[in-house]
Amino acid sequence: MSEDWKTATKLVHHGARRSQWGEVSEAMFLTQGFVYDSAEDAQARFIEAGPDEFIYARYGNPTVAMFEDRIAALEGAEAAFATASGMAAVSGALVSCLKAGDHVVAARALFGSCLYVLENLLTRYGVEVTFVDGTDLDQWRAALRPGTAAVFFETIANPTLEVIDLPAVAALAHEVGARVIVDNVFVTPVHSRAIEQGADVVVYSATKHIDGQGRALGGVILGSTEFIRETVEPYMKHTGGAMSPFTAWIMLKGLETIALRVRAQTASARAIIDAVQGHAKLARAIYPGHPDHPQHDIVMRDMGAGGTVLSLDLAGGQAAAFRFLNALGIVLISNNLGDAKSIATHPATTTHQRLPDDRKAALGITPGLVRLSVGIEDTDDLVADVMGALDAA
Length: 393
Hints:
The protein has helices at residues 7-13, 39-47, 62-75, 86-95, 112-124, 137-143, 166-175, 188-191, 207-211, 225-239, 245-276, 296-302, 317-327, 357-363, 379-392, and strands spanning 79-83, 103-107, 128-132, 150-154, 179-183, 201-205, 219-223, 282-286, 309-314, 332-333, 343-345, 369-373. The chain is of the alpha/beta class and 393 residues long. It folds into 2 domains: 2-254, Aspartate Aminotransferase, domain 2 (3-Layer(aba) Sandwich); 259-392, Alpha-Beta Complex (Aspartate Aminotransferase, domain 1), CATH 3.90.1150.10.
């Protein structure tokens, strides 16, 4: 039974639907609609569609369903809904389950677009949002109250790599009846045990490690069958944020190799952070898998590895950070992450540039901070590239 398969086997085979042709690679059903044998069949399907019956690609599609089934099996979730982008997944997970008057508690260290959804979009429609230092359990405890509808946080924060104690926050949230929604991108599905550790809803940008090769935007919301089918699906299918069949096929191909890629990227990230320790040009080097990380014990307990991303804070500020970036020969300057290619980003002037300086300072996004997403290039080449760029900084 596929439920008994180990992760690597599920990533290749789980959820496959084969046509009458018996194809090896999953079929790509590039269709927006489906034909019914009769008017009565059309009526019956609109009343209740079966697991292999489809109505319209915005509601579901065989290729998309294969991706949803496979990623749900990997995550240990009952169900999934695939979305057009990671932010479609974040906004869909939040907006679908909230209404005017609801209260949300969120970690303050978030990706800029996530902050926009919480600070600008939800509050515009009457949702109260309280921000806390996600690493401080006392702040979570003080902010949560009976009737709080949801908590939201990145399990590893972008770009400062703070790690939140998911089981502890989930326990506090569940005491007051709040739904726990987590953005799990930096942990990756390979290292994730988020559902097991108390998350009710897990969100991924599939653009990152799931595709992992810079080809397509995508996202996915995972949770209970009840939440996905009765809360998320009606919202997503009527607002139009569904994943395309072509993108789902790309994501299926990405899942086949994600474990190989993420483990290799994680090993290289650890080698780089070990190499740069104590470098004179650095004010600090941040990697969740290194023993000097403040939440290292939580990382090893909950994830078992530090992930594919590290951050380097250049002592010379923005000028030094730019010199470092411009001296890189292998690592590309871009704002994606989780790619097969190594990518460096200067958050203060790109992904988080709209934040006021005092907010950046409070979050630890200094002028010298560079986020480095480690790819699958040769580890020695990457170490040499980073060390050479540091010397040039």
